[in-house]
Each structure stands twice: as C-alpha cells, then as structure tokens.
Design goal:
The chain is of the alpha/beta class. It contains five helices and five strands; from the N terminus they run βββαβαβααα. It has a single domain, classed as Nucleotidyltransferase, domain 5. It has a five-stranded mixed β-sheet, sandwiched between helices. Helix 3 crosses helix 5. The chain starts with 10 loop residues before the first strand and ends in a 7-residue tail after the last helix.
Length: 173
C-alpha cells in the first residue's frame, strides 16, 4: 500500500532550482501531505537532483508528476533545468507515470482570477488557502537572494495549476 493515501489521486510537484529541489505531494487540490526543500549543491547537482526525484517517486508512488516546462524557453542559462526535465520525463515514461509540464504563463493564468501575477502574490494566495503552507516568505530586498522557501510555493503552484486544468479546480479568490 502506498504511504499517505486514502484512495485519492497523489500528485507530486517538483521544482528544481540552482539551490536544490523542492517538492510538494498533494492528495487533493488543497491537501498537501508532504513537502520539503532538498539542498543540492556542487558540480553533480543535476545527477543528485535527478536521483532525489527518483527516490521521491519510489517512496510516494504518485499517480501524477507535475514539473515546470522549461523546454520551450530559449534561454541558454536554463540548460540544466531543461536536461532535468527531459531526464525525469523519460524516467516517468518508463514507469507509466503521467507527467504534466506547465510554463510560468500557465501558472499565472491559473492564479489570474485571484489577482496574483508575481511569484510572491501567487505564494500569498497559496498560503491563504493551504494552512500547512501559510508561512509565506518575506518580501526580498533587491540586494538579497530569493528566499529558499519560495521554491516550495512554486512547486505547490504547479500542482494547483494541474488541478485547475485537469480537474476543474480554481484557486479561491
């Protein structure tokens, strides 16, 4: 029997970053059951992030995997994230796992009705609706790096975009 499930669809959303891998496992549109940010640094960051994703898939056995679509982006600096997307896509295909990839534009469109456009505004909408994720990172100063925790909200936003596109769910206003 799969851990953390009561007969509902498990959706695992992954968000790789330059600092590691964030994930959120949802059992329903507003029901996260597991979340974490894994720090991964160094020259083997891609392979370690991929292995962490494989371990998460093996541990939770999700029905659906949701990732951010980076393949359509022309930006060269996203080369590592594009490779990660291709690698995890092929792995999930081999396990007969449904994979959905949504662009930042898709996520913004999902949260547009709530008036959220920026990553921080989207995080605030998520924090207001999901009690477990209510601690939204503080607004960053221009000289500081983005808060690590924001990547967790990016993963949650991907999952909520999946629910809105494929299950008729819309984030509440």
């Amino acid at each position: 029997m799969r851990p953390y499930t009561r007969g509902r669809e498990l959706v695992l959303a992954l968000q790789p970053s330059s600092r590691g891998l964030a994930y959120v496992l949802f059992e329903g549109s507003l029901s996260p059951v597991a979340w974490e940010i894994k720090d991964i640094r160094g020259p083997r960051r891609l392979s370690e992030a991929f292995q962490a994703a494989v371990d998460l898939i093996a541990r939770y056995e999700p029905d659906v995997l949701v990732i951010e679509d980076k393949l359509a982006s022309p930006l060269e600096q996203l080369r590592t994230r594009k490779r990660f997307q291709r690698m995890i896509g092929k792995y999930a295909e081999g396990r007969a796992l449904d994979v959905y990839a949504y662009s930042r534009a898709d996520v913004r469109a999902c949260f547009a009705d709530a008036g959220a456009i920026t990553r921080r505004e989207i995080a605030q909408v998520i924090g207001a609706q999901i009690h477990a994720l209510r601690r939204v990172p503080p607004r960053r100063s221009w000289w500081k790096a983005e808060p690590r925790r924001l990547f967790l909200f990016d993963a949650a936003a991907l999952a909520m975009t999946y629910f809105s596109r494929d299950a008729g769910f819309r984030p509440p206003l």
